[in-house]
Design goal:
Blueprint lengths: L1 H14 L1 H7 L9 H16 L4 H14 L3 H26 L3 H37 L5
Length: 140
């Protein structure tokens, strides 16, 4: 559902990109309209188009919460999301000062969080399955 909703929004933003960007511009911005459109187009390609990756990050993170592993979900989100963003802004961004490098970090965070959450999910699911098998309790 998350991927489907994201693809619908990506399609809508793709069709009406200029109109959406124009909503955030005033008469005073017309002198720098070309720069605004260029930067907005970069952000669109590196933030909006890969936005479906959020589903790969959020779904396993929320599954962990549903399993009762809220602290694990919090810690993974804190260290992977916030830690990577700080590392990116303090180390990578100063070496490559471009708009694209600024926007790429979000896409990478979604991927890294998705991998970390998915790994944590399978780790804890395996522990739960072992506990159920060890105690002999059924899943009913």
């Amino acid at each position: 559902i998350g991927i489907g909703a994201s693809l619908i929004f990506i399609g809508a933003f793709s069709l009406f990109k200029d109109a959406f960007i124009g909503m955030f511009m005033s008469e005073n911005d017309m002198a720098i309209k070309d720069d605004i459109m260029r930067i907005a187009s970069i952000k669109f390609m590196l933030f909006v188009v890969p936005y479906f990756l959020v589903a790969f990050s959020e779904v396993p993170g929320n599954i962990l919460k549903g399993m009762g592993k809220t602290m694990i979900s919090f810690v993974v989100g804190l260290f992977v999301s916030c830690g990577f963003k700080l590392l990116w802004q303090l180390v990578i961004l100063p070496m490559h000062r471009t708009e694209a490098m600024f926007f790429i970090s979000d896409m990478l965070i979604w991927i890294l969080c998705g991998v970390a959450y998915t790994w944590a999910y399978f780790y804890y699911k395996k522990k739960i399955d072992r506990k159920i098998k060890f105690t002999g309790r059924d899943r009913k």
